[in-house]
Amino acid sequence: MSIIKRFFKFYSQAQTKYTIHSPFVFSLIEEVIEDDRIYYDFGALERLRMTLEKDPSMLSVTDLGAGSRVNNSPSRSISSIAKTAVSPQWQCEFLFRLIHYLQPQNRLELGTSLGLSSLYQYIPLRNAPFYTLEGCPNIAKVAAANFKKLKAEQIHQYVGDFKDTLPKVLEDMQELDYVFIDGNHQMAPTLSYFETCLPYSHPNTVFVFDDIHWSAEMETAWEKIKAHSQVTLSIDLFFMGLVFLRTEQQVKQHFKLVPAKYKPWKMGFFAPSHH
User: Fold this and answer.
1) What is the model's pTM?
2) How far apart are the C-alpha atoms of 189 and 12, rounded to whole Å?
3) DSSP per-residue string spanning 91-151
4) What is the Cα–Cα distance from 78 to 183, expressed in whole angstroms?
5) Which is nearest to 147 in space by CA: 161, 162, 126, 167?
6) Neighbours of 69 (CB within 10 A)
7) No. of H helices and E strands in the chain?
8) Model confidence over 188-226: pLDDT tens digits?
9) 267/17 Cα distance (integer angstroms)
10) CA–CA dist 115, 120 (Å, integer)
11) Could you say which DSSP state residue 228 is in?
12) By CB atoms within 10 Å of each CB, which of 99, 108, 195, 232 scores lowest?
């Protein structure tokens, strides 16, 4: 099934805030998913993106994940990486808003890339450390320069294969409040990262998975994560999936959500009720 068909399947099943009865989820929709405020920091971050998208410098790339759909050659320009492998502006802004709303102190990212999404996740909470893993040393060097440029002094980078660096960073962090998994588009590693992180999580930890509909394999991984015994709440936004371990929630709940403006006929009195 193509990504377009997968999207239309998702869209046909998606709810808006008008059919949500969970106060926690409703608040998340209002404060994060439908928030369109422009924060002061967005300007500097998008200027950095534009600089990277124009940078012709070539890098020798070690790709330990499933690669890019667009360009999977071993040597790539910074411009090409910025245009195809870095989260787009609206996704980065979503991550910024999520951090701003939840205020998680112990944050971990798997998949630094050029560091733009790292900065979007770090800046809303500059007084707390941010940990990020990258498989490719040359890409990590560019990210480090970007962190320095924006004076992101509390970002801690770990470079190498995640199977080696993830246990080390978890040992250093001791506890996880927030995890963004964006480093690999294959089922087995994605599930492995989740399982490895779980012992360091607690009932208020949030896991964010990128590209959950990237392939049939990633969709299967997402279903397995949702079914995990510790997961009590999942939110499928198509481009990303959020997983919560909230112990106060007695019954598992799984939502597929779109902003209300994308389903205007599902507003207010006209919306069917879902529990």
Assistant:
1) 0.91
2) 30
3) HHHHHHHHHHHH--SSEEEE--TTSHHHHHHHGGGTTS-EEEEES-HHHHHHHHHHHHHTT
4) 18
5) 126
6) 12
7) 10, 10
8) 999 999 999 999 999 999 999 999 999 999 999 999 999
9) 8
10) 9
11) S
12) 195
Q: Where are the beta strands (DSSP E) in 34-95?
A: 58-60, 75-77
Check if the beta carbon of residue 118 is closer than 8 Å to that of residue 86: no
Rounded distance between C-alpha atoms, residue 18 and residue 22, angstroms: 11
Q: What is the pLDDT of residues 110-159, one digit of tens each?
A: 999 999 999 999 999 999 999 999 999 999 999 999 999 999 999 999 99
Query: Would you list the DSSP string of 156-220?
Result: EEEES-HHHHHHHHHHHH---SEEEE-S--SHHHHHHHHHHHGGG--TT-EEEEE-TTSSHHHHH
Q: Which residue has the tokens 């124009």?
A: 54
CA-closest candidate to residue 32, choices 40, 24, 41: 24
Strands 206-210 and 240-244: antiparallel
Size of the chain in residues: 275
What is residue 264's DSSP assignment? G
